[in-house]
Design goal:
mainly beta, Porin, 18-stranded antiparallel β-barrel, three-stranded antiparallel beta sheet, 1 helix, about 50% strand, globular, Outer membrane beta-barrel protein
Length: about 525
């Protein structure tokens, strides 16, 4: 509001008049200074009201940690909620969406040693979220209601010099492969629903009686934010796959594909008490194997391989700092077969033999470890522990051993990401004289972007399957080289070269194979 000043002065002659003029000038100067100061202070106060407060450090989402659903190393501490930060490894940010008001409480990116499928089941492969924001070659996705969906379709062809995984004399074959994937998440400010699914078939062209080797996996996850400190988590999952050639769990006399199926659900609750977080999950999974045709005629009855697994898992974690969160975890499982006793088993020569033993087991696993971000270049989660699975057949000794699990990523530059993984599992088996399998896996991969749209990845892995109670120990080695050249956001050329070796303690079960493949990938 404008302010007007009116000064009435009575002129006086001489020195008094001069002094009055000086006083009036001084008063005007003081008044102008006060007005200027008031204006500056008012502007500063208005700007202070509009300016945002100090941003707290944001917690790393599980997807951004090493190995977690395709997350990349590098971290995002201190970033604005809507600001996309380039992540190490060449992918530039995750799809832009409002920051959730509540991150997942006590998350984990480690595999569950008690939740592993029986030996002979293929590992479940689900798509990983792909980055978009700052990368001109990344897919944008398709908006469908509250979801942002990212579908992809890949067609490839190649050559396998030992598709039957024979010790010697294997015949090579060309093959065609078709794979489709889709993943999506809601963009709600509270709660979250996610879906992931993939399907693949592979057809060998030069084998006398080839199958299609189907491989289908799907999972739907949900998180209900009851309060800022309480969450309810859930998951539904299912998979179908054909057994792998050369697998000791599959008899040599099986004709065509032997299909394995699994379905399960998880329901849990998580609670945060300041820095302490507790999470309790209940898991139910069912595993079945379809009856298989035999080369000599007849059918192999696999009904004695069907069972349900019931697991309870408790995890307690404490946030020492935003970069370090140690935890302890305990899990208990019981595996209840449909049939009390088995019909048959598979011997060391991969032949079907009569075997009648009590089926089922009970077990537990104890682990301790930490989620960490040692620097903006090293992130991950690691744990060590002990696991024990006790068969219900008293003639077998328990399967027990050290558990080592971890997912760590190191980004030495913005174009290179090194990943190290470790997994342990206690698994069921159909092999004769074996109570179960203690399996361990180590993996190493180095991804480098030669250009922003051209990546090359070198991989190496080692898998040991120790069949407890049996003399069989299988060591599998894999070396691989993969490349992807993205022509546009929606189109990419792919290629891979893979070398496999199996070194078994059982004579005449060793094999090696070389697989080369080129393909075309469409993405949205």
């Amino acid at each position: 509001m404008p302010v007007s000043w009116s000064l009435t002065m009575t002129p006086r002659p001489g020195r008094a008049a001069s002094r009055s003029k000086e006083d009036m000038s001084r008063r005007r100067a003081i008044l102008q200074a006060v007005l200027v100061a008031s204006t500056v202070l008012s502007a500063a106060g208005a700007r202070a009201q509009d300016a945002p407060g100090d941003e707290p450090l944001r917690r790393l989402d599980a997807n951004a940690l090493a190995g977690g659903e395709g997350g990349l190393a590098g971290g995002d501490y201190g970033a604005q909620p809507t600001e996309q930060q380039p992540l190490a490894g060449g992918d530039y940010g995750i799809a832009s969406r409002p920051e959730s008001s509540a991150a997942t409480i006590a998350p984990t990116i480690l595999s569950d040693p008690l939740g592993a499928a029986p030996r002979g089941f293929r590992p479940v492969r689900l798509p990983s979220p792909r980055g978009t924001a700052d990368d001109p070659y990344a897919p944008l996705g398709v908006e469908a209601g509250p979801f942002v969906l990212r579908p992809s379709l890949e067609a490839a062809g190649g050559y396998d010099d030992n598709p039957d995984r024979l010790p010697e004399g294997g015949k090579g074959s060309r093959f065609l492969r078709l794979r489709g994937e889709i993943d999506g998440r809601t963009d709600w400010s509270r709660h979250e629903v996610g879906i992931r699914a993939s399907g693949q078939i592979r057809r060998y062209l030069d084998l006398p009686d080839p199958g299609f080797e189907p491989e289908v996996s799907a999972a739907a996850t949900g998180r209900l934010d009851v309060t800022e400190r309480t969450q309810i988590n859930s998951e539904l999952r299912a998979s179908l796959a054909a057994s792998r050639p050369g697998d000791p769990e599959t008899p040599n006399s099986v004709k065509g594909d032997e299909l394995t199926r699994s379905a399960g659900a998880t329901l849990g609750v998580a609670q945060r008490f300041n820095r302490l977080s507790l999470r309790l999950d209940g898991l139910v999974d069912r595993y079945t194997v379809d009856d298989a045709k035999l080369t000599g005629g007849g059918t192999l009855d696999n009904s004695d391989r069907a069972y349900n697994a019931y697991e309870a898992r408790l995890r307690a974690s404490y946030e020492v700092s935003p970069r370090l969160e140690p935890f302890v975890e305990a899990g208990f499982v019981t595996r209840d077969y449909d049939r009390k006793f088995s019909n048959n088993a598979i011997n060391d020569d991969n032949e079907i033999v009569e075997d009648r033993r009590r089926l089922g087991s009970d077990g537990y696993a104890l682990r301790t470890g930490a989620r960490f971000e040692m620097s903006r270049l090293v992130t991950g989660e690691a744990a060590v522990g002990y696991g024990r699975q006790t068969p219900k057949d008293k003639s077998f000794k328990p399967i027990e051993g050290l558990l080592v699990d971890g997912e760590i990523a190191w980004a030495p530059s913005a174009l290179t990401t090194v990943r190290l993984s470790a997994k342990s599992a206690l698994q069921e088996t159909t092999l004769q004289n074996s109570a179960g399998v203690l399996s361990r896996n180590l993996g190493l991969s180095v991804e480098h972007f030669l250009r922003r749209n051209w990546s090359v990845t070198a991989k190496a892995s080692f898998d040991r399957a120790d069949y407890k109670g049996s003399a069989r120990i299988d060591d599998a080695f894999t070396l691989g080289l993969e490349t992807e050249y993205r022509l546009t956001r929606s189109l990419a050329l792919t290629g891979s070269l893979e070398k496999l070796w199996l070194d078994s303690s059982i004579p005449n079960d060793d094999y090696d194979a070389t697989i080369i493949e080129i393909g075309l990938r469409l993405r949205r």
